[in-house]
Design brief:
By secondary structure, the chain is α/β, with parallel strands linked by helices. The protein has twelve helices and twelve strands. The radius of gyration is 22 Å and the shape is flat. Pfam families: HTH_1, LysR_substrate.
Length: 318
Protein backbone atom coordinates (compact mmCIF):
# COMPACT_ATOMS: atom_id res chain seq x y z
CA UNK A 1 0.00 0.00 0.00
CA UNK A 2 1.36 3.44 -0.98
CA UNK A 3 2.13 5.84 1.84
CA UNK A 4 1.41 9.54 1.65
CA UNK A 5 5.14 10.22 1.10
CA UNK A 6 5.23 7.74 -1.79
CA UNK A 7 2.51 9.80 -3.46
CA UNK A 8 4.18 13.16 -2.77
CA UNK A 9 7.54 11.95 -4.07
CA UNK A 10 6.05 10.31 -7.15
CA UNK A 11 7.75 10.69 -10.52
CA UNK A 12 4.95 13.03 -11.61
CA UNK A 13 5.36 15.36 -8.64
CA UNK A 14 9.12 15.51 -9.05
CA UNK A 15 8.73 16.22 -12.78
CA UNK A 16 6.41 19.11 -11.90
CA UNK A 17 9.04 20.47 -9.52
CA UNK A 18 11.79 20.13 -12.13
CA UNK A 19 9.74 21.91 -14.78
CA UNK A 20 8.97 24.82 -12.46
CA UNK A 21 12.62 25.01 -11.43
CA UNK A 22 13.62 25.18 -15.10
CA UNK A 23 11.11 27.82 -16.24
CA UNK A 24 10.70 29.76 -12.99
CA UNK A 25 7.17 30.51 -14.11
CA UNK A 26 4.01 28.80 -12.87
CA UNK A 27 2.18 29.84 -16.03
CA UNK A 28 4.85 28.59 -18.44
CA UNK A 29 5.50 25.37 -16.49
CA UNK A 30 1.78 24.54 -16.35
CA UNK A 31 1.47 25.09 -20.11
CA UNK A 32 4.44 22.82 -20.85
CA UNK A 33 3.11 20.15 -18.47
CA UNK A 34 -0.40 20.39 -19.91
CA UNK A 35 -2.07 21.09 -16.55
CA UNK A 36 -3.77 24.09 -14.97
CA UNK A 37 -1.76 26.58 -12.95
CA UNK A 38 -3.80 25.92 -9.75
CA UNK A 39 -3.11 22.17 -10.11
CA UNK A 40 0.63 22.85 -10.37
CA UNK A 41 0.54 25.26 -7.43
CA UNK A 42 -1.28 22.65 -5.33
CA UNK A 43 1.32 19.96 -6.08
CA UNK A 44 4.22 22.28 -5.23
CA UNK A 45 2.57 23.32 -1.96
CA UNK A 46 2.07 19.64 -1.03
CA UNK A 47 5.72 18.99 -1.75
CA UNK A 48 6.74 21.98 0.37
CA UNK A 49 4.59 20.77 3.28
CA UNK A 50 6.21 17.34 3.04
CA UNK A 51 9.80 18.66 3.13
CA UNK A 52 8.85 21.28 5.71
CA UNK A 53 10.19 24.36 3.93
CA UNK A 54 9.37 26.66 1.00
CA UNK A 55 11.08 25.57 -2.22
CA UNK A 56 10.44 28.85 -4.06
CA UNK A 57 10.06 32.51 -3.15
CA UNK A 58 9.08 35.59 -5.13
CA UNK A 59 10.61 39.03 -5.45
CA UNK A 60 8.06 41.13 -7.28
CA UNK A 61 6.90 38.96 -10.17
CA UNK A 62 10.15 36.99 -10.38
CA UNK A 63 10.32 33.47 -8.93
CA UNK A 64 13.47 32.12 -7.26
CA UNK A 65 14.60 28.83 -5.72
CA UNK A 66 15.07 28.93 -1.97
CA UNK A 67 18.02 27.21 -0.27
CA UNK A 68 15.71 24.26 0.35
CA UNK A 69 14.71 24.41 -3.31
CA UNK A 70 18.32 24.11 -4.45
CA UNK A 71 18.80 21.14 -2.13
CA UNK A 72 15.64 19.53 -3.51
CA UNK A 73 16.73 20.20 -7.09
CA UNK A 74 20.10 18.56 -6.54
CA UNK A 75 18.49 15.57 -4.83
CA UNK A 76 15.91 15.16 -7.62
CA UNK A 77 18.61 15.17 -10.30
CA UNK A 78 20.56 12.57 -8.32
CA UNK A 79 17.46 10.37 -8.05
CA UNK A 80 16.94 10.42 -11.83
CA UNK A 81 20.65 9.92 -12.51
CA UNK A 82 20.83 6.95 -10.14
CA UNK A 83 17.75 5.27 -11.59
CA UNK A 84 18.82 5.87 -15.19
CA UNK A 85 22.37 4.65 -14.49
CA UNK A 86 21.07 1.50 -12.83
CA UNK A 87 18.71 0.84 -15.73
CA UNK A 88 21.47 1.34 -18.30
CA UNK A 89 23.92 -0.88 -16.41
CA UNK A 90 21.36 -3.68 -16.27
CA UNK A 91 20.47 -3.28 -19.93
CA UNK A 92 24.11 -3.25 -21.07
CA UNK A 93 24.44 -6.86 -19.95
CA UNK A 94 21.55 -7.96 -22.14
CA UNK A 95 21.57 -9.37 -25.67
CA UNK A 96 21.63 -7.23 -28.80
CA UNK A 97 18.76 -9.28 -30.23
CA UNK A 98 16.50 -9.58 -27.18
CA UNK A 99 14.38 -7.12 -25.19
CA UNK A 100 12.31 -4.03 -25.86
CA UNK A 101 13.02 -0.76 -27.67
CA UNK A 102 10.65 2.15 -27.25
CA UNK A 103 10.88 4.94 -29.84
CA UNK A 104 9.16 8.32 -29.82
CA UNK A 105 8.74 10.07 -33.18
CA UNK A 106 7.77 13.71 -33.44
CA UNK A 107 4.22 13.74 -34.84
CA UNK A 108 5.08 16.27 -37.54
CA UNK A 109 7.82 14.04 -39.05
CA UNK A 110 7.26 11.90 -42.14
CA UNK A 111 7.47 8.48 -40.48
CA UNK A 112 7.07 6.07 -43.41
CA UNK A 113 10.78 5.29 -43.67
CA UNK A 114 10.92 4.47 -39.95
CA UNK A 115 7.81 2.28 -40.07
CA UNK A 116 9.25 0.42 -43.07
CA UNK A 117 12.61 -0.05 -41.35
CA UNK A 118 11.01 -1.31 -38.14
CA UNK A 119 9.09 -3.92 -40.11
CA UNK A 120 12.29 -5.14 -41.78
CA UNK A 121 14.20 -4.99 -38.50
CA UNK A 122 11.65 -7.15 -36.69
CA UNK A 123 11.77 -9.77 -39.43
CA UNK A 124 15.53 -10.11 -38.82
CA UNK A 125 15.34 -9.71 -35.02
CA UNK A 126 12.17 -11.43 -33.79
CA UNK A 127 13.41 -11.34 -30.20
CA UNK A 128 13.13 -7.55 -30.14
CA UNK A 129 9.81 -5.93 -29.24
CA UNK A 130 9.57 -2.51 -30.87
CA UNK A 131 7.09 0.18 -29.80
CA UNK A 132 6.62 3.34 -31.87
CA UNK A 133 4.97 6.40 -30.30
CA UNK A 134 3.79 9.49 -32.21
CA UNK A 135 4.42 12.36 -29.79
CA UNK A 136 4.39 16.12 -29.46
CA UNK A 137 7.67 17.91 -28.80
CA UNK A 138 6.73 18.37 -25.13
CA UNK A 139 5.88 14.68 -24.75
CA UNK A 140 9.17 13.63 -26.35
CA UNK A 141 11.28 15.58 -23.87
CA UNK A 142 9.14 14.52 -20.91
CA UNK A 143 9.57 10.85 -21.85
CA UNK A 144 13.30 11.24 -22.44
CA UNK A 145 13.56 12.89 -19.02
CA UNK A 146 11.63 10.08 -17.33
CA UNK A 147 13.49 7.44 -19.41
CA UNK A 148 10.26 5.91 -20.72
CA UNK A 149 11.47 5.98 -24.32
CA UNK A 150 14.88 4.76 -25.46
CA UNK A 151 15.17 6.84 -28.61
CA UNK A 152 13.49 9.97 -29.91
CA UNK A 153 13.34 10.97 -33.57
CA UNK A 154 13.04 14.74 -33.69
CA UNK A 155 14.24 17.93 -35.32
CA UNK A 156 17.30 19.85 -34.12
CA UNK A 157 18.43 22.36 -33.05
CA UNK A 158 15.63 22.70 -30.49
CA UNK A 159 15.96 25.99 -28.63
CA UNK A 160 13.22 25.01 -26.17
CA UNK A 161 15.65 22.63 -24.42
CA UNK A 162 18.01 24.51 -22.12
CA UNK A 163 19.79 21.57 -20.50
CA UNK A 164 21.46 19.23 -23.00
CA UNK A 165 23.85 17.76 -20.43
CA UNK A 166 21.95 14.43 -20.00
CA UNK A 167 21.45 13.86 -23.75
CA UNK A 168 23.25 12.93 -26.92
CA UNK A 169 22.12 13.10 -30.53
CA UNK A 170 22.91 11.21 -33.72
CA UNK A 171 22.15 13.03 -36.95
CA UNK A 172 20.12 11.10 -39.51
CA UNK A 173 20.04 13.71 -42.27
CA UNK A 174 20.07 17.45 -42.76
CA UNK A 175 16.74 18.43 -44.29
CA UNK A 176 15.59 21.43 -46.25
CA UNK A 177 12.19 22.95 -45.76
CA UNK A 178 10.55 23.24 -49.19
CA UNK A 179 7.98 25.78 -50.29
CA UNK A 180 4.93 23.88 -51.62
CA UNK A 181 2.46 25.60 -53.95
CA UNK A 182 0.19 25.34 -56.98
CA UNK A 183 0.89 28.79 -58.39
CA UNK A 184 1.68 28.48 -62.12
CA UNK A 185 3.46 31.84 -62.11
CA UNK A 186 5.99 30.43 -59.63
CA UNK A 187 6.20 26.88 -61.01
CA UNK A 188 9.53 27.34 -62.84
CA UNK A 189 11.34 28.75 -59.84
CA UNK A 190 13.82 26.45 -58.12
CA UNK A 191 14.35 28.99 -55.36
CA UNK A 192 11.97 31.57 -53.96
CA UNK A 193 12.55 34.61 -51.79
CA UNK A 194 10.63 34.72 -48.54
CA UNK A 195 8.85 37.94 -49.45
CA UNK A 196 7.46 36.32 -52.62
CA UNK A 197 5.66 33.65 -50.58
CA UNK A 198 3.43 36.17 -48.81
CA UNK A 199 1.07 36.79 -51.72
CA UNK A 200 -1.32 34.01 -50.75
CA UNK A 201 -2.75 32.33 -47.65
CA UNK A 202 -0.91 29.43 -46.04
CA UNK A 203 -1.74 26.24 -44.16
CA UNK A 204 0.78 25.53 -41.39
CA UNK A 205 1.61 23.37 -38.43
CA UNK A 206 -0.05 24.44 -35.15
CA UNK A 207 1.57 27.18 -33.07
CA UNK A 208 4.42 25.87 -30.87
CA UNK A 209 5.24 23.05 -33.32
CA UNK A 210 8.92 22.94 -34.20
CA UNK A 211 8.56 23.65 -37.92
CA UNK A 212 6.13 26.48 -37.23
CA UNK A 213 8.77 28.00 -34.95
CA UNK A 214 11.42 27.54 -37.67
CA UNK A 215 9.23 29.26 -40.29
CA UNK A 216 8.31 32.12 -37.97
CA UNK A 217 11.96 32.70 -37.05
CA UNK A 218 13.08 32.73 -40.71
CA UNK A 219 10.57 35.45 -41.63
CA UNK A 220 11.37 37.40 -38.47
CA UNK A 221 15.10 37.37 -39.33
CA UNK A 222 14.24 38.64 -42.82
CA UNK A 223 12.23 41.49 -41.21
CA UNK A 224 9.03 40.15 -42.75
CA UNK A 225 5.62 39.37 -41.33
CA UNK A 226 5.01 35.67 -40.91
CA UNK A 227 2.68 34.00 -43.47
CA UNK A 228 -1.06 34.31 -42.90
CA UNK A 229 -2.31 30.86 -41.95
CA UNK A 230 -5.95 29.93 -42.56
CA UNK A 231 -5.65 26.43 -41.06
CA UNK A 232 -3.35 24.36 -38.87
CA UNK A 233 -2.65 20.63 -39.09
CA UNK A 234 -0.36 18.39 -37.06
CA UNK A 235 0.95 16.05 -39.76
CA UNK A 236 2.63 16.70 -43.13
CA UNK A 237 0.08 14.51 -44.93
CA UNK A 238 -2.76 16.68 -43.63
CA UNK A 239 -0.96 19.88 -44.63
CA UNK A 240 -0.23 18.53 -48.10
CA UNK A 241 -3.83 17.37 -48.68
CA UNK A 242 -5.26 20.73 -47.59
CA UNK A 243 -2.78 22.73 -49.69
CA UNK A 244 -3.47 20.60 -52.76
CA UNK A 245 -7.25 20.91 -52.38
CA UNK A 246 -7.38 24.63 -51.57
CA UNK A 247 -4.28 25.84 -53.46
CA UNK A 248 -2.95 27.44 -50.29
CA UNK A 249 0.80 27.61 -49.73
CA UNK A 250 2.66 25.48 -47.22
CA UNK A 251 6.18 24.30 -46.35
CA UNK A 252 7.21 20.68 -45.85
CA UNK A 253 10.48 18.79 -45.27
CA UNK A 254 12.24 17.13 -48.19
CA UNK A 255 11.64 13.71 -46.61
CA UNK A 256 7.88 14.08 -47.03
CA UNK A 257 8.18 15.44 -50.57
CA UNK A 258 10.44 12.53 -51.54
CA UNK A 259 7.90 10.02 -50.27
CA UNK A 260 4.60 11.56 -51.36
CA UNK A 261 4.64 14.44 -53.81
CA UNK A 262 5.25 12.71 -57.18
CA UNK A 263 4.95 16.02 -59.01
CA UNK A 264 1.48 16.81 -57.68
CA UNK A 265 2.54 20.20 -56.30
CA UNK A 266 5.33 22.56 -57.32
CA UNK A 267 8.24 22.91 -54.90
CA UNK A 268 11.07 25.37 -54.42
CA UNK A 269 13.89 25.96 -51.98
CA UNK A 270 13.53 29.04 -49.83
CA UNK A 271 16.02 31.85 -50.36
CA UNK A 272 17.78 31.90 -47.94
CA UNK A 273 17.49 28.14 -47.38
CA UNK A 274 15.76 26.89 -44.23
CA UNK A 275 17.61 23.84 -42.91
CA UNK A 276 17.43 21.64 -39.82
CA UNK A 277 18.64 18.22 -38.74
CA UNK A 278 16.53 15.10 -38.38
CA UNK A 279 18.18 13.21 -35.54
CA UNK A 280 17.98 10.47 -32.97
CA UNK A 281 18.12 11.85 -29.42
CA UNK A 282 18.78 9.66 -26.39
CA UNK A 283 20.10 9.78 -22.86
CA UNK A 284 23.90 9.67 -22.60
CA UNK A 285 25.20 6.11 -22.77
CA UNK A 286 21.93 4.71 -24.09
CA UNK A 287 23.62 3.95 -27.43
CA UNK A 288 26.02 1.61 -25.59
CA UNK A 289 23.19 -0.77 -24.69
CA UNK A 290 23.65 -3.70 -27.11
CA UNK A 291 20.13 -3.77 -28.55
CA UNK A 292 20.10 0.04 -29.02
CA UNK A 293 23.57 0.04 -30.62
CA UNK A 294 22.51 -2.74 -32.98
CA UNK A 295 19.30 -0.91 -33.88
CA UNK A 296 21.13 2.33 -34.73
CA UNK A 297 23.84 0.53 -36.74
CA UNK A 298 21.25 -1.45 -38.71
CA UNK A 299 19.27 1.74 -39.41
CA UNK A 300 22.35 3.37 -40.96
CA UNK A 301 22.79 0.34 -43.23
CA UNK A 302 19.11 0.41 -44.16
CA UNK A 303 19.23 4.06 -45.24
CA UNK A 304 22.32 3.42 -47.36
CA UNK A 305 20.68 0.47 -49.13
CA UNK A 306 17.47 2.39 -49.75
CA UNK A 307 19.40 5.38 -51.18
CA UNK A 308 17.29 7.54 -48.86
CA UNK A 309 19.86 10.33 -48.56
CA UNK A 310 20.44 10.36 -52.31
CA UNK A 311 16.71 10.72 -52.94
CA UNK A 312 16.55 13.79 -50.69
CA UNK A 313 19.40 15.34 -52.66
CA UNK A 314 17.57 14.63 -55.92
CA UNK A 315 14.48 16.45 -54.62
CA UNK A 316 16.63 19.54 -54.04
CA UNK A 317 18.05 19.33 -57.55
CA UNK A 318 14.70 18.80 -59.33
Amino acid sequence: MKSKQDTIFSSKTLSYFLQLAETMSYTQAAQILGITQPALTQQIKKLERTVGAPLFYSIGKKLHLSDAGYTMLEATHKIYETLNKATDEIQQTTSATQGEISIGILASIESSVFASFITDYYEQNTGIKLTLHSLTRKEIWERLESDTIDLAVTYLPDESIKNWKPYESKRIVTEDLLFIHGNENLSKRKRIRLKDTLTHNWVTYPPQYYLNDIIREAYKNALLDKPTSVAHFATPAQLFAFAKKTQTYTALPTSFVAAHNNGQMATALFEPEIKFDLAFVFRKGKNQIPRIANFLKTFDTYLAKKDYIMRLKEIKAD
